[in-house]
């Protein structure tokens, strides 16, 4: 088991694009295993490679308890999203202590490769759709707090400044929030 340090928004790498995975080898499987270990340790339900400093297009998701799936997805691409949206709360292991509403499509269909390079598709709705889109944003250097409505962005401005200085906002209840929404 190898738990890696999770980068927070202090780190510029979170704003860079990750590259496509070309080699489907043992190194990839080891990286994915470490990502699962790290996500589990942080009580998160999703993690993208860049969050542990691995600038590759890989994500792991564990939403089994919420009635969805657990899996790893390499080189994912969005094929289709619903026009219908959802507006529930979202959090991120790289933005500790923050959980705020963000509008996202209710449903998404993606293509991806599995750990042997096989092409597959996956459809997900609600929390699964949110997690898939959130992690895929990470791969393009986007963090969810930058997608918020201006009035919500304003509300958490001071907390964001604190996190960028390496602190955690005082009033946050991290374990509770992480169990539910941190992706
Ligand atoms: Zn995240």
Description:
The chain has 183 residues and is an alpha+beta fold. The protein has one domain (12-181): Peptide deformylase (Peptide Deformylase, Alpha-Beta Complex). Helices cover 28% and strands 24% of the residues. The chain has five helices and nine strands. The chain has helices spanning 26-41, 126-139, 150-155, 157-164, 174-181; strands at residues 46-48, 58-62, 70-81, 85-86, 89-91, 99-101, 104-105, 107-113, 119-125. The strands form three sheets. Strands 1-2-3-8-9 form a five-stranded antiparallel β-sheet. It has a two-stranded antiparallel sheet with strand order 4-7. The longest helix has 16 residues, at 26-41. The protein is globular. The two termini are 20 Å apart. The model is unreliable at 173-180 (pLDDT under 50). Residues 92-94, 134, 138, 183 line the site of zinc ion. Zinc ion binds at residues 92-94, 134, 138, 183.
């Amino acid at each position: 088991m190898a738990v890696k340090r999770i980068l927070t928004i202090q780190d510029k790498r979170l704003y860079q694009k990750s590259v496509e995975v070309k080699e489907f080898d043992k190194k990839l499987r080891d990286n994915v295993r470490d990502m699962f270990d790290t996500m589990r340790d942080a009580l998160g339900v999703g993690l993208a490679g860049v969050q542990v400093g691995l600038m590759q297009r890989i994500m792991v998701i564990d939403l089994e308890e919420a009635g969805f799936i657990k899996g790893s997805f390499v080189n994912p691409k969005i094929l289709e999203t619903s026009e219908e949206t959802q507006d529930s709360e979202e959090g991120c292991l790289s933005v500790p202590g923050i959980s705020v509403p963000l509008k996202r499509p209710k449903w998404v269909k993606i293509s991806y490769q599995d750990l042997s390079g096989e092409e597959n598709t996956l459809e997900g709705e609600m929390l699964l759709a949110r997690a898939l889109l959130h992690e895929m944003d990470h791969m393009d250097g986007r963090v969810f707090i930058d997608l918020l409505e201006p009035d919500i962005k304003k509300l958490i401005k001071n907390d964001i400044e604190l996190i960028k200085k390496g602190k955690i906002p005082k009033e946050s209840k991290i374990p509770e929030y992480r169990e539910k929404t941190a992706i």
